[in-house]
Design goal:
Elements lengths: L1 H19 L7 E3 L9 H12 L7 E3 L2 H49 L9 H24 L15 H16 L4 H25 L6 H11 L12
Antiparallel strand pairs: 1-2
Helix pairs in contact: 1-2, 1-3, 3-4, 3-5, 4-6, 5-6, 5-7, 6-7
């Protein structure tokens, strides 16, 4: 993200500097004591001052057209700053939602123990699976809207979705074997949302596999998380 933002700013500065360069130094008015240069470095300085909307005022354009050009650059600089802040502010909530889903799956696995859904009342289990299905769908939408969030690896594995998504599949499969109709329906919902997530991972990020399970295993390997035989992340 830092590289992208830096590239935005650098290309913008360099592009506007090339506009100013043919007009240096005659097309600008310099304050007393400010040396006049007509090189690219001077054009870059003027471009940086204009893009950042600092406006020191020691070098100002003389021609009306150049004044309009510098004002236009200041507007684009403000737009660049706004876009950068908006991008960052929208990215981190998406990461938080993904981490929250991973934490929920870990907590459910620890609380339910080896019995899994059998340790819960059918009504309670149904509500939990429907909630998980909605959260998985939200993560799929986040990955489509903010592709860059995929490349954030989690330092703590409890918050790592690649290390915990397989447990969501286990829950969905267990629900499909239940005698309770509502729980089976919730299981189908969770399965459908997991298949959608697998399709996003397959189509957008190149994870191959004929099944959703194979895609999730590739997802887990790519993020360098491994599960022990008992299913816990390591």
């Amino acid at each position: 993200m830092a590289a992208v933002i830096g590239a935005w700013a650098s290309l913008s500065i360099a592009g506007w500097a090339l506009v100013y360069l043919p007009h240096l130094p005659a097309g600008f008015i310099y304050a007393d004591g400010v040396p006049q240069h007509g090189d690219f470095a001077e054009a870059v300085y003027i471009s940086m001052v204009s893009l950042s909307t600092v406006g020191y005022g020691e070098i100002v354009p003389a021609a009306p057209l150049l004044r309009l050009v510098m004002a236009a650059q200041a507007v684009t600089g403000f737009g660049l700053l706004t876009a950068t802040v908006s991008w960052i502010l929208q990215t981190y909530p998406a990461l938080s939602r993904r981490r929250a889903l991973a934490h929920d799956l870990n907590l459910l696995r620890e609380a339910a123990g080896p019995l899994g859904l059998l340790s819960l009342e059918p009504g309670h289990a149904t509500a939990l699976l429907e909630s998980l299905a909605r959260k998985v769908s939200t993560v799929s939408i986040d990955l489509l809207a903010f592709n860059e969030t995929y490349y954030f690896n989690e330092a703590k594995q409890r918050g790592s979705l690649p290390a915990t998504i397989a447990y969501a599949q286990e829950l969905a499969s267990d629900a499909l074997t239940s005698t309770n109709a509502d729980l089976r329906f919730a299981g189908r919902m969770l399965h459908a949302s997991l298949d959608d997530l697998a399709e996003v991972l397959r189509g957008k990020f190149g994870h191959s596999g004929p099944t959703s399970s194979a895609v999730f295993q590739s997802y887990e390997r790519h993020h360098k998380h491994r599960r022990n035989p008992d299913g816990e992340a390591s």
